[in-house]
Specification:
The protein is mostly helical. About 70% of the residues lie in helices and about 0% in strands. The model has no long low-confidence stretch (mean pLDDT about 90).
Length: about 220
């Protein structure tokens, strides 16, 4: 006799075999949102490549992991796993702040809490209002994302009952996730532009163009 668990697992395997997101990719709103997020993540990948050309620095591991977190958000976003996007987004911000701290000569592993991590990064940026503004945006974003991770109320919950609900598409949830991502990635790109100006100036032209493509006019004015 086949147990209920075995039946459920076989149904799960059938579900995976039939799984497809091709229908969702016909939705212009989703594709446009993906393009906007993708090009901003691509700019961070360009930074990652360019910074890897120089002397091997320990701080780069945190930037690499932040970018890795953001890359993993893209397939989650397509499938409608919006709460999972929030968890990965929060991790990306924390790892970027770890990069900031390590780049400033501090050991992020020696810092006991995330609030202390942000405070350490803030202290490193205290003499530059542009850096401080971007760190503040990242901290605000991190705090909001904690609401999703900790299920702090009904608006931050998903209440999925079965995998067959996925892939899913919720325009309002998509818009929220994308706006938060764009805000964070803009802050990251801007921060890198400010602290790694020499590396930006010497970038391979295609990578430099990719970074320039995601900068606002006010951010471009920061280029020395």
């Amino acid at each position: 006799m086949t147990s209920a668990v075995e039946v459920s697992f076989n149904d799960f395997v059938d579900y995976l075999n039939a799984y497809s997101v091709s229908g969702l990719l016909s939705k212009k709103e989703l594709v446009d949102s993906l393009k906007g997020v993708h090009k901003r993540i691509y700019a961070l990948i360009c930074w990652q490549i360019e910074l890897s050309r120089g002397k091997k620095e320990g701080y780069r591991v945190w930037l690499n992991e932040s970018v890795s977190d953001l890359i993993q958000i893209l397939p989650l976003l397509v499938q409608g796993y919006y709460k999972a996007c929030a968890a990965m987004h929060r991790s990306a911000i924390e790892n970027f702040v770890r990069f900031v701290v390590a780049n400033g000569g501090k050991d992020p592993n020696a810092i006991q809490s995330t609030p202390d991590l942000f405070d350490t990064a803030k202290a490193l940026a205290r003499t530059d209002p542009e850096l401080a503004t971007r760190l503040s945006l990242l901290r605000q974003g991190y705090t909001n994302l904690c609401n999703y991770v900790h299920s702090a109320g009904k608006p931050y919950c998903t209440f999925a009952e079965a995998l067959k609900e996925y892939p899913a598409f919720d325009p309002q949830a998509l818009d929220t996730v994308v706006k938060e991502l764009v805000r964070s990635i803009r802050a990251m790109n801007g921060y890198l532009l400010l602290i790694k100006a020499p590396q930006f100036a010497s970038m391979f032209h295609a990578n430099r163009d990719a970074v320039l493509d995601v900068l606002t006019p006010s951010e471009k004015r920061l280029i020395v």
